[in-house]
Each structure stands twice: as C-alpha cells, then as structure tokens.
Amino acid sequence: MKVIFAALLVALFTVAAQACPDYRLGGKGLSYNATELYQSHSFKVIAGGEEDLERCDIRVLNPPPRFATGYVTESPDFELDYSSTRGYALELRVESECDAVLLVNTGAGNWYFDDDDNGNLDPKIRLTQPSGGIYDVWIGTFDGDACDAVLILETF
Questions:
Q1: Distance (Å, rounded) from C-alpha 28 to C-alpha 80?
Q2: What pLDDT was estimated at residue 14?
Q3: pTM
Q4: DSSP label at 102?
Q5: How far is CA 69 from the centre of its chain?
Q6: Closest Cα to residue 102, out of 75, 144, 69?
C-alpha cells in the first residue's frame, strides 16, 4: 500500500511540475474593439510565474520563429475578447520593474512571444492583421522573479 501511495505522489508531482500555459483556463476578462483601443488602455498585473516556458515547447510565429523562454503562470493573466477592424494593427506591450516577457495566444490560435522589443527589458508584440476572437495573455519574467507591471493595449 505504501508503495502504491508513493508512486501516486510521484506521478502527481511529475504532472504538476510539467504544467504549461493553458489557454483553456480563465484570465481577467477584457472586451474591446479596434476603435476603442485607438486610445491606449492600461491594466496592472504582477509579472512572473512558476511555469518554465522552455519545458513547454511553445513555438511562436513572430520572426524569427523560436521557442518561448521565461516564466509565466499556468492560467493567462488576461483574456481579451477582441473585435477586429480591417486596417488596424493591435499592439500589446508591457512596462515593468523587471525583465518582463509577454506570451499571447491569439483568436486564431497562434502563439506570439516577446522579451525586449519595448525597450528597457520590456516586451511588445504588434500584430499587423489581428484576427478577432479571444486573446489569452500572459505577462511573465525572464528569470522567474515577480514584479509590478502594466499591460498596455492599443491599436494603430
């Protein structure tokens, strides 16, 4: 009996240790269309998490194609219900007190990741032809530490 219980604990620990970002889990709900985001909107968040993206093999589409790195939570920080309008680019960027990372699963099911494109070790992703739908957004950190951050959404 002790052997079975120990094996069960090891199996549960292994599954828990291999958790990855899961777009099926809920995040803080946001709902905007392209014209509403023509004026930027900001949302406070604690950047970071315990899920090591290097273990998750999330291949992102933004050039150059690569794997995501850093630490995020399993659940998205935000779920953006976005109504796209032709001709608007959607930008998601982070301002933080640390080396933040940004991971996004779009309404079309594509993964995007950035580490430093917003300057000052902060991430930025600009989608030039964004689809409508639910965007799951994670704000993490490169080294796994947590810090205060702000997600900024804006269209151009």
A1: 8
A2: 43
A3: 0.88
A4: E
A5: 11
A6: 69
Q: Return d(Cα 77, Cα 68) in angstroms, integer.
A: 17
Q: Tokens 């992102």 sit at which residue?
A: 60
What's the rounded Cα separation, in Å, for the pair 56 and 73? 12
Identity of the residue numbered 41: H
- Measured distance CA(56)–CA(74) in Å, rounded: 11
Q: How far is CA 111 from the centre of its chain?
A: 9
How many Å apart are CA 113 and CA 1, to the nearest integer? 46
The whole-angstrom separation of Cα 106 and Cα 80 is: 9
Q: Are the C-beta atoms of 36 and 88 separated by less than 8 Å?
A: no
Distance CA 78, CA 59 (A): 20
Amino acid 69 reads: T
Per-residue pLDDT, 15: 45
CA 17 – CA 72 distance, rounded (Å): 13
